[in-house]
Amino acid sequence: MGQLIIDFSNWIWDTPMLILLMGGGLILFLYSGFLPFRYFGHALKVVSGKYDDKNAPGQISSRQALSAAIAATVGLGNISGVAIAINMGGPGAIFWMWISAFVGMATKYFTCSLAIMYRGTDTSGQIQGGPMYVIEEGMGKKWKPLAILFSVAGALGLLAIFQANQLTAVFRSVMLQPNGLDQGETTKWIIGISMMIIVAIVILGGIKRIAAVASKLVPFMVVLYFLTVLIIVFKYIDLVPSMFWLILEDAFTGQAVMGGAVGAVMVVGARRAAFSNEAGIGTAPMVHGASKNNEPVREGLIAMLGPFIDTVVVCTLTALVILLTGVWESTENDGVRLTLAAFEMGIPVYGKYLLMLAVLVFALSTMFTYSYYGHKCMNYLFGAEKANLYNYFYLVTIVAGAVVSLEVVVSFIDGMYAIMAIPTMISTIYLAPKVKAATKDYFQRFQ
Predict the structure, then answer these.
(1) How far apart are CA 44 and CA 40, in angstroms?
(2) Which H/E stretch holds residue 127?
(3) pLDDT at 260 over 60
(4) Residues in CB range of 196: below 8 A, 6 or more apart
(5) Around Cβ 207, how many Cβ atoms within 10 Å?
(6) CA gap 56, 60 in Å, rounded
């Protein structure tokens, strides 16, 4: 069964997803007239709160929506995802992650504008947003099977098993094994149950509590991670230009990996970028759809900053640390352990503890937000009354994630992400002219 999951994930993430996410995103990027570049400054003004309206419908502010969305995206995809990308695709995979991010900014802009444009109400009368409501309200009832497909894949793919798996690996490597306290399987179970209890305290309080916790944790963890990484980068500052050159050179030759297969390097980069910034997958529209905003375009502009912060800034910093310290060439480590080796080399003694703190906060904040996404999918499928049952299922799978193998976990989540991307991208391209018209109208009023 495990091998079947791995094979399906590898197949769907090869050509089909590359065409759908990169090709579809490129179409949206060109169709928008390079909007991410032209209105980047305006997006920063919007996120500063300059245009906030407290009385608009919705449950949380736009900035909280961005914090919650970034809490879900700036996470282990940036720490262990980048390590997995360099491990599998060499340094060149980072270049293709950047390209995916710029294309992804356009995708996020369209998907999150649509999330405000076409909101629906659930069975309890609450306003809700997300690809399933965009499909039903924007495209019509006959497209509902697509909305159901998205929600089923979302309920399964947005479990926190990857985060639980990686957090367990770091905690054991840093805190337990060096002190002779690791008891193998028993330890995994104890860590899994402990994580489950912490997550339960936050998520059983609903989106308002999740957004409140995320908007406090996210800025703190991003600053902490940044400072740690910058210390390491400055230590090797004379090597930085050559590392950027290595990334560019390897992106078009693929020499560091797979016998010079550039296509393989592209696939790895696009796959990790999608896992990291989630553009086109449809998760962010669910949280942006709950924000207090009557201006779809404004929400789209705020959401568009997500892939930039996530992939262009945070992933690049992680990649530099891994490349500058040279650990990617000399160790057998995978995922988060590779980043851990780089931090230990860059900041001896303290580096691993700083990374562990970042991983702890990153992983927990992602776990909080994912539960909200899955809850929304369940709400759409079975109604608001039954949606709360999802939280209990979600909490139990955290323990499972702590115990099972990394490869099966990554492949299962990747496979579900791919299935979610299909309805999201179909509806976004179908409804793109509506966003284009709204964009024109918005900038005539606010220029």
Answers:
(1) 7
(2) strand 127-128
(3) no
(4) 395, 396, 398, 399
(5) 24
(6) 10
